What we know:
The protein is α/β, with parallel strands linked by helices. The chain has helices at residues 6-31, 34-47, 66-77, 96-109, 130-141, 169-180, 209-216; strands at residues 54-59, 84-86, 115-117, 146-150, 155-159, 185-189, 221-226, 232-237, 240-245, 263-270, 273-280.
Amino acid sequence: MYRQTGNGKRCRLYCLGWILIFILVCGGAQSATLYEQSLQKLESRLAGVQEEPYTFVVMGDSRDNDEVFIKCLLAAARYHPLFILHTGDAVSTGSEKQFRHFLAILQQTLPDMPVFVAAGNHELTNGDKRDKGKALFQQLIGPLDYVLDLPGINSRFIVLDNSGYTLTSNQVDYLRTQLSIEYSLKFVLMHIPPQTLKWIDSHTFTKGADVFLQTLSGRNVAGVFYGHYHLYDEAMLDGTRHIITGGAGAPLTRLYFGDTSYHFVVVTLSRGKVSTEKVLVSE
C-alpha cells in the first residue's frame, strides 16, 4: 500500500513546479516569431564560422507552390548559407492558417536555418481585413521594418515594408539613418521594386520611390533585393545593383524584361567584395 508522507507531498509539489516551468518555457518558445527564432539560430551559426567566404541566399514569392519552394530550400542548403532572406509573398493571404503552413514547411525542411522575411502584399492581406493580416505577420513572422547587423562579417541588412506600394517619409528617414552607420557591406531588402525607366508597369511602387533611390545614391550599398515580379532581373541604378528575385514557387510571369524561371540567388561575401549567382530550380 502507498503511504503519503510530508516528504512525498513536497516531492510532488517540486515535480509539479518543474512541469509548470517546462510548460511556460516551451509555450514561450512556441510563441516566438520566426524573426526571433532566426536570430538565435544565426548566433549559433556565426559562432561556428571561422573565415571567409560567407554566403547567404535570397529568394521570394514562394506562395502557392510548396513543391518548388521546398526544392529551393533544399538546393539553397547545399551552399551552406548563414541565413536566407525572403523577399515576401510567402503566403497567398495573410491568414493564420497560411502563416503557420509556411512556418511548418521551414521547420520540416530546414529546421536549423535562419530565415528573415520582408513583408509582401499577399502577407498583409486577409480578405478585406488588411490590419488583421499585418497584425498576424508581426505576431508570427516578425517586424515590418528592421535591421540585421552582423559585426563579425562587417555587414548590415535593412528590411523595409513597402507592401502597400509606398515608402513613407518616416521609412525613408529610417533608411537614411541606418545607412549612415559605417559597415563595409550594406544591403536593402523589400518586396516591391521602385518604378524606373525599365520597370514601369503597375507592379512597381511610385510613392516614395524617387527619394528612396536618391537616399541610396552615394551610400555604398552593396545590393538591393526585391520580389513581387515572379522572375529574375537586375539593374544598375546610379552605381547600386538592384536585383529582383521572385522565383521560389509563385506562378511565373513572362514580361518584356527578366528571366522567367524558378530560382534563388546565392550571395558570396569575400574580402569586402560581393558576388551573386542565380541558381535555377526545376519545376
